[in-house]
Here is the input.
Amino acid sequence: MKPLLLTNVRLIDPKSGLDKIGRLLVKEGKIAAVDMPESEKLPDACEIIDGQGAVLCPGLVDMRVTVGEPGYEYRETIATAAEASAAGGITTMAILPNSKPAIDNPALVTLLKAKGEETHSVNILPYGALSVGCEGKEMAEIGLLQEAGAIAFTDGNKALENTRLMMLTMAYARGYNCLVVQHPEDPSLARKGSATRGELATKLGLPSIPAAAEAIMIARDLRLAELTGCRLHFGHVSTAEGLGLIRQAKAKGLPVSCDTAPVYFDLNEDAIGDFRTYAKLSPPLRSEEDRQAVCQALADGTIDAIASDHLPRDVDDKRLPFAEAAAGGTGLVTLLSVTLLQVKKGDLSLSDALSLLTYRPAELLGQQFGTLSIGVDADLCLFDPDQNWLVEAGKLPGRAQNTPFDNRELPGVVLGTWKAGRRVYARQSS
Amino acid sequence: MDNPFGQHFLGIEGLSPHHIESLLDRADNYALLNRSRKTPRTLLRERTLITLFFENSTRTRTSFELAGKRLGADVINMSVSTSSVSKGETLLDTAYTLNAMRADLLVIRHSHSGAPALLAQKVDASVINAGDGMHEHPTQALLDALTIRRHYGTLSGLTVAICGDILHSRVARSNILLLNTMGCKVRVIGPPTLLPLTITKMGATPYYSMDEGIKDVDVIMMLRMQKERMQAGLVPSSREYFRFFGLDRRRLNLAKPGALVMHPGPLNRGVEIDSNVADDPAQSVIQEQVEMGVAVRMAVLEKFSQIKAQP
Here is the structure.
């Protein structure tokens, strides 16, 4: 592999606080120099790329991705998801375990990692199932799964409902210092609901889910975290009340963290319009007040990470009456761009926004990714924050096309993505 | 005759190092006599010993019966299945019945903590606790202590790791109490679902990692892992349990060279202990524990028969 110099780039490394125009050298897949002085001699046969002032940041770390593999390959495979992630500047994906079979067996963890390595374009960090089959009935083999490489434990987009089992599982996970990730939604309140409870759901005649379903589950699990000492993370938090509880818990010093997804700070329930199933998500899009609370929690640090919440669905899963359509949206390609909207609005600095997409999720998962440091793998994302692009369902990289941002113009064009120094995405000039 | 121990033997709690040493000394003597088959078969002559087992335990019951017989007592076994309890009689009804029969020693095993203590309030006989619920199993702790003392000459200063289901183990509780009293350092090792944090208040240091907990210990006490614990969701599977909390040769090598391997039995091979460790005569003293069990129970029966209630 030839040495690579990325020059004339705005180097942003949120972890170290670096933000300046400079150049970065890659040798043998590793970062060899950050902010390399102009006077320093380049290695022989060095490839030089002029970034023309674009931002060069660590490759994004997406801590919440569903792929269809194994079991639902028609929705998305790891290979197609890797293609989409590369186009979105993502170099690390944490994969939720709700596949078929669920990732509740060490051999499946090994399989997912191997599939990721085959792509050569993305690190795959598999979650292990919290309960056998993600069915919420029996504790999964947390120790063996962790030993095989599972980075944290969750039942993915299903909440673990049984309080006793949740308590035991959290207590058990604590012995291995595992992070437990919960989908914060009381299943008995959410059952059969398809929109957030409110005026719109009433008007459309949709079965609804109260926003309190989130706060109820968060309140229960915070109490269990206090009881067991387990590190607890809430995925895609979407309500003011839920975030308020997490804020209080953090203030008390509980080992608690959370993420949200772009859909919850950019869209509100109005996006479902007249039964637009691409905007049917889990949890459902919330009220405007809740959306604003998510924006506020991003700014004040209550939210620790932004994840794509990529949930690929087939056309046939979505082409159904709203209440029957599957919940979920794609998110890999739009993760960075929708986050940049918050920067454009002035709610977040660029560095803070990138911190939520890089080292902070990596640290939550106990990984070294997401930073521009000498000696680490050169996982890089080069993007132009001032250039816009049009989201067009049907033309997105990867297999899944069910994006709720269809037909939106978004800022932030990814120009190139590098995985361990190897270029895995290059923007085609139009 | 006065007995400094009191009338009943309900637990290790409250015993002084002197009490414990005196029982161990006596038991040591019985161990020698047992081997030479010169036990004093007249010592408990005309004394009646009833073993009252509300929970199955062939091993402990047989050990007590043998101890009683070697001392010359009349030994009667009352097992639950044949008792009136199965017909609805309460524990206290049973107590009154036995009292009327003027037994001298009642050895009781019960699934509920505190059952022997309740019985002790109501009978004239001496009640010996042969294991009550999750509370205590004092003769097991004594036989463990005797086994250790015979190998190291003392208990004081030793580091002992008790591994497995601490939460439900009466063996662990009695051992923690006894070993602390005798000046040992006690570690407890297990998954957090089986390791109550308040165990520190009893004087044991908890470890969630077997590799860390077992490092440089003199004695490793393995506990039986019940299948019900897996069914109750406290541990995901036996293969996971063995992988992280099972005692195999590699783990044993982390302890001090020659560390003793103990187990109260019966063993779950391949769940909490590997056969080649359990059966290794160089370090495993599991069979010796069984032998010492009889000797210890003889010492206890002797001691507590001395306070036979006066007519």
